[in-house]
Amino acid sequence: MLPNFLVIGAQRSGTTSLFQVLRRHPQVFIPDVKEVNFFFHDNHYRKGVEHYQAYFAQAAADNPAVGEASPGYICKPGVAQRIQELLPEVKLVAVLRNPVDRAYSQYWDNRRFLAEHLSFEQAIDVALTPEYRHGERGYFSRGAYIDQIEKYLELFPRENLQVLIFEDLKQDPEAVFSRCFEFLGVDPGFRCPEMTKASNSSMVWDNPVHSFFLRHNRYQKYVPKHWIKQACRGPLIKRKYPPMSPEARERLLEFYRPFNRRLEEFLGRDLEAWSH
Description:
- The protein is of the alpha/beta class.
- It has a domain of 178 residues: 3-Layer(aba) Sandwich (Rossmann fold).
- The strands form two sheets. A five-stranded parallel β-sheet has the order 2-3-1-4-5. Strands 6-7 form a two-stranded antiparallel ribbon.
- The termini are far apart.
């Protein structure tokens, strides 16, 4: 058994919510593990197809939709080729978010895991590029969506790709999920409570060491990583990250403008909410 659909991305764009809802649909099989990342991580890919098939061993033979969700698939060079070689007829689902907000969300996700010692403005200075380079900061390159989509469309027909918009998902989740179900060939009328629940909300560990390094992240680079990891333990509490500076937002809006314009042309729709 191999998947006939993949949720390919993008990170911090609602893929966790989609994963949770797909798990509830009675006609869909998706592994309990989100981010299988078989095509993304070289060490996973080298284990071969039998290793990948094991994730879908429990799928019923009559499941019309069998898939997995790994949001890194959309951006890493070479992944589309790997997918096409093994799954040439697979359906692809991409969930896209305002790339400025997506980048800031990913930045603060790294901050809460104490994995970023730069300020957001410093990160812009060192990592503002449309080219994704594995192992480097991908806050901004992950948002050049149209470049990534075009690479997939060199290998897959347009009808095999569905693009969902995160902001639509927030505004009318039932309608967006219904379109996704229809695309996957399952009952579009299915409903569940997870459709209206926020997933992957920002939680941080409530202990003084974590709080110190979250506030003073520039000191993280002077501390061994295994010490830092010890701070990511204990009870969790919700925390809102501070707003992005107007200067950083304007710089990113300008950077993404040509990519967003091309994406609008591809989708045949206006993405006005992404322009501010």
